[in-house]
Amino acid sequence: MKNIIDNTATFAQPGHITKSAGFTIQCSDYTNQSMKTYSRKDFYKICLYDGECTIDYADKGIAVNGKILFFGTPHIPYSWEDINKNIAYSSLFTEEFLKTNNNSESLQQSPLFKIGGTPIFNLTDSQAEAITEICNKMIDTYNTDYLYKEDLLRNYINLIIHEALQMKPSDSYTKHKNAPARVASLFMELLERQFPIETPQAPLKLRNATDYAQGLAVHVNHLNRSVKEITGKSTTSHITNRIIAEAKALLKHTDWGIAEIAFSLGFEYPTYFNNYFKKQTGTNPTAFRE
């Protein structure tokens, strides 16, 4: 391992990013290192890879042989088995690290990370060289004492994202099943369209799995099965996590009262919101804001 860096100088467990840090980058040049467990990860991942491997991603099986750029999301389970690797750079980060304000577009809406998208981009030698240069700059930047290095690291991540958006995604995969992935993709897109909450006078309307199933014109059981199969998490978990994320943003970035925030998120009474927030975060909204 050439270099591993993150905000706390530790990488808590394989497959987990330290939440207080929100970012890490690593470069490895050894072979046969695999992530064989098909599971949902806790972070977004951008990987520059040169070698041969097999990736199982959502409803796709992807065969890789050459230089690629891979985009992984915590909302879709995947496994990775190396056959022969030359080198790989991996940047792991949370959405909270990359988003600087509540109005920033969610990564779930990006063509690179959305369910149903293609996470693999084949690279030419010149494209791989350009991405490698950015990765090396990320490592060099993190190892400095530059006061605004986190902003610079975000810029480098966004630069890689924009480089990829100009490329054509790979079609070297086999599709195993369509319906669950399509339903899960539509659910995630509908969920994101409910946010951000702009005013307490336009409260959140879709609050539970049944609401979303009705909005998608599918049976709630079919929705729940599809979302669980493709993302590894329940429909309710996705909804809860998104509501809590929005609640935190509103508490942090607005001067709305707790009652206004509760109402904007679809809670009839502030007490219901307080209990809901404390159950999910371990603290009450007032304490979180302070």
TrEMBL record:
One Pfam family it belongs to: HTH_18
Gene3D superfamilies, per the entry: Homeodomain-like
UniProt keyword terms in alphabetical order: DNA-binding, Transcription, Transcription regulation
PANTHER family to which the protein is assigned, alphabetical: ARAC-FAMILY TRANSCRIPTIONAL REGULATOR (PTHR43280), TRANSCRIPTIONAL REGULATORY PROTEIN (PTHR43280:SF32)
Record field: transmembrane: none
Domain of life of the source: Bacteria
Originating species: Flavobacterium zepuense
Domain annotation HTH araC/xylS-type: ranges: 181-290
GO function terms (MF aspect): DNA-binding transcription factor activity; sequence-specific DNA binding
Keyword Transcription: yes
Protein name, entry field: AraC family transcriptional regulator
